[in-house]
Design brief:
about 290 residues; Rossmann fold; 2 domains; 7-stranded mixed β-sheet; two-stranded antiparallel ribbon; 11 helices; SAM-dependent_MTases_sf; EC 2.1.1.297
Length: about 290
């Protein structure tokens, strides 16, 4: 574990040398930048202008500790205990998925589409709570509820809500066994459910496979639309007429997911591309 006084430039060289068998060079440099922001509070500009400035002792120590964790393929977000989402820090652990940029795009679509000053919103499979909390903060008069099957995930989500002084109603719910309650009515239902097929494991990085919850990642190869079908069926009851359903989706099953929703009576179905041009989101409306 390296603890001697080093500059940011030296740490960049060290991370690249010791991690290039696991990560691309650009990713190694991104790790160093993240650590400089987290432990030194250095902006990107400060990092550029002070690359040859010796880091504070506590930062050097933490850089060394994090490097050892990265060499074991542990996600950097778990090592520092947080991930940034919608320009806000969220506490994360191995009990929840690490928030991804494409999920930020999903939140932006929901906020930009919304015409109601005080919508009721349900987030299914909330994990860290990043979607639910972000929507509440960006649509302050919304009433937001969030479900997850994992009590550990819900504990972390509640902590994140408290951290951001945000009022979200969290509840432990297994969507695969949940019976629809016609008394619950929402303007918006959103979900980033498990959608990676078991056969896709061989394409995934070790830091995801070893350290993120499989319960939130994988579906059987025999039924890749399991959660989409279940949630869409539930939303037929709990969505208000003309209410909107939003999904983050597996890019390999965009057309199949849209066709399934069409067969269930949903209308105005749009497959949405992420910034990389991949089909990663879907929006649909319940019949009026």
């Amino acid at each position: 574990m390296r603890m001697s006084a080093c500059t940011l430039r030296q740490w960049n060289a060290t991370f690249e040398h010791e991690l290039t068998h696991l990560y691309p060079r650009e990713e190694c440099r991104r790790f160093v930048s993240m650590l400089a922001e987290h432990y030194c509070k250095w902006s990107r500009t400060k990092q550029l202008t002070s690359a040859d400035e010796t880091l504070p002792p506590h930062a050097n120590q933490q850089f060394g500790i994090i490097l050892e964790g990265l060499k074991q393929a542990r996600p950097i977000q778990h090592l520092i205990g947080e991930a940034w989402f919608m320009e806000r820090p969220f506490s994360v652990s191995s009990d929840v998925l690490i928030p991804r940029p494409e999920t930020e795009e999903l939140v932006h679509h929901i906020v930009n589409d919304n015409q109601c000053p005080n919508p009721t919103i349900l987030d299914i499979g909330t994990g860290s709570g990043c979607i639910a909390i972000s929507l509440k903060m960006m649509i302050p008069h919304a009433t937001v509820s969030a479900w997850d099957i994992s009590e550990k995930a819900l504990t972390l989500a509640r902590e994140n809500a408290q951290r951001h002084h945000c009022d979200v109603l969290f509840s432990r719910t297994d969507v695969l066994t949940q019976n629809p309650d016609k008394g619950e009515q929402y303007d918006i239902v959103v979900s980033n459910p498990p959608y990676i097929c078991e056969q896709e494991k061989k394409l995934m990085h070790a830091n995801v496979l070893k350290h993120e919850p499989h319960l939130a990642l994988f579906v059987p190869d025999s039924d890749p639309l399991l959660f989409y079908r279940t949630i869409a069926r539930l939303a037929q009851t709990i969505l208000k007429p003309s209410g909107k359903l939003y999904f983050e989706i597996n890019e390999a099953y965009g057309t199949e997911t849209a066709n399934m929703l069409t067969s269930m009576g949903y209308i105005n179905i749009d497959i949405l591309n992420d910034l990389q041009g991949k089909q990663r989101m879907l929006r649909a409306h319940r019949q009026p």
